[in-house]
Amino acid sequence: MRESSAPHSNSLPAAGGERAPSRFGEFWRAYAQNRGAVVGLLIVGALVALAIGADVIAPHPPHEQYREFTLAPPVWHAGGSLRFILGTDPVGRDILSRLIHGTRLSLLIGAISVAISLTLGAVLGLVAGYFRGLVDTAIMRMMDVMLALPSLLLAIAVVAILGPGLVNAMYAIAIVLLPHYVRLTRAAVLAEAPREYVTSSRIAGAGALRLMFATILPNCAAPLIVQATLGFSNAILDAAALGFLGLGAQPPTPEWGSMLASALEFIQRAPWVVTFPGLAILVTVLAFNLMGDGLRDALDPKLRRSTA
Amino acid sequence: MLGFILRRLALIVPTFIGVTLLAFALIHLIPGDPVENISGERGMDPARRARLLHQFGLDRPLAVQYAGYVGQILHGDLGSSLTTHDSVAHEFATLFPATVELATFALLFAVVVGVPAGVLAAVKRNTFADYAVMGVSLTGYSMPIFWWALLLILFFSVQLGWTPVSGRIAVEYDIPAVTGFMLVDTLRAGDMAAFRSAVSHLILPTIALGTIPLAVIARMTRSAMLEVLREDYVRAARARGLPRWRVIVVHALRNASIPVITVVGLQVGLLLSGAILTETIFSWPGVGNWLIHGVQSRDYPVVQGGILLIAALVISVNLVVDLLYGIANPRIRHA
Questions:
Q1: Residue B87 pairs with which residues in a beta bridge?
Q2: Which residues pair with A241 in a beta bridge?
Q3: CA quadruple A122, A127, A132, A136: dihedral positive or negative?
Q4: Interface contact B20, partner A, CB < 8 A
Q5: What are the CA-CA distances from residue B205 to residues A6, B153, B314 (Å)?
Q6: pLDDT for A9-55, tens place per residue?
Q7: Chain A window 150-189: which residues touch B at a Cβ cutoff of 8 Å?
Q8: Phi then psi for B190, rounded to 5 degrees?
């Protein structure tokens, strides 16, 4: 993984005449050793399938209100029916269907906010680590300021500026995640820049852009991939928290956090309206964390999980 | 040593300046200006608007406004709330002890449970105990704490009726706020019934807020212990025939404690993030609850002042952790 542009990466002779395992095979063997990581991957796969097929899989449309069946209990409760497997919410919408559609939203929030902050973070980190000097200081001090604010508080501040809503929540989360990618990329660039393959590439006449993005960046990929996976779980958690506080997705959007918040007053009469959305958040976040742990072990045993 | 302290102090000055810039920018980036927010939907005639803008100094150049803002901060003036008209600094100071009380107990809970759990997992590596601790801590780490808090309330308060649902103390007690810390104030007043009430109100929020730090600390303790247990001096201590617990606690844990202490220090930001959610759910009258109300009622001086003070707090705590780390580990000091 680390040697994609190193000159000797493809010249290792296969030992004992056996075929050398492909790079993916090697990675997979290391990854599969971690049983939790495999479980995490399976859950994430299932969630992605649910998200893609939500329209077909969900038994009911997510906004359809069955007024005669408000707060119907789940199927295993007395009075529950197979028609609403996980029961209905205060206005008679099927909870299971809303959760399935919520999967799509949560994964989308995770994907978009991670994509934004990973891209921006990698660029800023590359620039800071490659040019050093004043640019580096300016970028890193800015990141220090962002890290000085507790993550949810920073997200709330951004939402206060942009206004509440699902899209703005994604931007807020992307901003919150940004400093981690900048720091990781910069640290990796500082480690890679003095290596010989970079020097040789420079002597061969590569320009700054080519050196940064084509030569150095691929060799910083491992920590970024791990952080991006863990970033998914942070993004989903923060988005749910913002939704819960009324600052993220607005009802009637079937977002898990706002579903939970809008049913709060019925928590005693109908605990399931609160239990299942929370469980969905927990399982999804757990799956991404398991995957992140496995990826970290497989890609770079030296990496330690960041503590934040 | 002095050089190290001064270097670290110099390093946080730009961060502080950055935070004031951020807080200042917050007000100016918000769509509409404060005058518009005061006038509401109805609008206002241009002459009055210009007069108000002038009165607030909002017609001056941005740099001048920023300088004025920093001057105000240095005098401890953070403006006053648009809803209560009370000074922001004063409101923060009144509510802050409640948050500190909650966060302190949450952190205490996290350390008291997390460190032994991590040690147990490391010592009994690859046994059921290890898997159980790691499984529980990974779940805790992934927990949406607003949901976790609701489950705790549903089970312990609603089903079992053991603990109260919200607030810091039952309404029948009227304890004068001397320190702002409810446990201290009730003890000072000598009212044991009130003290018990305060303790019972503290239990669930403490567990809810402490869960994620607990998970982080347990994981960190385990990995630090695993590293230390491999060291020669641990084997040597065992070879000398010292009791197993003594080797674990005195020789290993003490040396594993540096990374653990660092992680504990880093939990402060996490605790304050969590406090926003925990306080909202338990109607805990702290700064997190206050800030959310500020955001929801568009009370921008509160949001601005709150963000500034919390950021200053996190920076200061991180600095203290950094300095302690430097004292504990000379290699850091001279790096």
A1: B80
A2: none
A3: negative
A4: no
A5: 53, 9, 21
A6: 444 444 455 566 777 888 888 888 888 899 999 999 999 999 998 88
A7: 150-153, 156-157, 159-161, 163
A8: 70, 20
